[in-house]
Specification:
Helices cover about 55% and strands about 15% of the residues. The protein contains five helices and six strands; from the N terminus they run ββαββαβααβα. Helix 2 packs antiparallel against helix 5 (about 115-135) and helix 3 (about 65-80) packs antiparallel against helix 4 (about 85-105). The longest helix has 21 residues, at about 115-135.
């Protein structure tokens, strides 16, 4: 079999005897994989729908310190415009970007909205059960002869 002049049999030598129901390189398990994927998606959606994320004022090293965290990034960018191969410029730029990312993450507040025990159990069981089915689908299944 050729695709754009490239022989796929050299790239995928062991796939000649596989069917579409094979998951993870093992025989069988497509139904479990699809059901697990759907359960994981629904459980993940329901769980993330119960979470509220709020930001607060930037207080990395005290009040109103966002400008201080921009200094390494701006200095690194200026050095890179002068000399694009400067190692100190790349280090300052990366460190400044990491400072800003850490500041954003540190100032986020994540809350789980109130939910009944039943709804919480449904969300978690769908999420974890789906992940378990996906993992189970990767195992080899014996085909009935």
């Amino acid at each position: 079999m050729d695709f754009l002049g490239v022989s796929l049999s050299g790239i995928l030598p062991r796939m000649d005897n596989r069917s579409m129901s094979d998951v993870g390189g093992t025989p069988g398990g497509l139904g479990e994989f699809v059901l697990g994927f759907i359960m994981t998606c629904v459980g993940g959606y329901l769980l993330s729908n119960q979470v509220t994320v709020m930001g607060s004022y930037w207080s990395f090293w005290g009040a109103n310190s966002f400008g201080v965290t921009l200094i390494p990034l701006l200095l690194g960018v200026a050095i890179l415009f002068f000399n694009g191969r400067s190692m100190i410029g790349w280090v300052l730029t990366a460190a400044g970007a990491l400072f800003i990312l850490a500041g954003v993450i540190a100032n986020m507040h994540i809350y789980f909205q109130p939910a009944t025990l039943f709804h919480t159990l449904v969300m978690l069981i769908l999420l974890v059960g789906g992940l378990g089915l996906i993992a189970r689908s990767m195992r080899s299944h014996n085909r009935a002869a």
